[in-house]
Amino acid sequence: MAAPLPLKEQIIAAGRMALRCHTHLALWRLTAGVEGRARHREVLADHWEHIRFLEHGQLFTAVIELHSLLDANPATINLPHLTDELEAEHGPQTLIRQALREAEATFGKLRKLRNGVYAHRTKRKAYADMFKQAAITPDQLQELSVLAIAITNELREAIDLEAEAPTTLPAEFYERMLEQLAK
Prior knowledge:
Helix content is 78%, strand content 0%.
């Protein structure tokens, strides 16, 4: 069995995952969110067949990436295990542990959504019912993604890497594209 990647590489990878998740959620909300639906009503009606697949892909990717980051699978790059490894080398990480505890309740909802809809599509419930059962809101998904970025930045700073911020460029481009389609 191959040795795990060095801690620094794993932390960098986790940061990229958190930033991608955040961007996918921002793109999803541009057309799936209440404000986006109202602002782009005509474009959505004219291009629904295309946009519905984009929306599904954005949410699917965000849910999978965010779940990966928060799931404590010892074989994967995730925030709980990175925190364990960082603590073994650098001592207690109180702020990170507190942030992980804050995420626990919402992560349970995310797990229900990921497991029941995307990773292990249940045959016992309708697709819409799984979303209802998970009871996770778009705002809660967004909050988890912001928290994941904050945690990865704490991990980065603990090993002397600069913090990273999400970019708004993909969402700005997508917004301009939707505006062009409306013309």
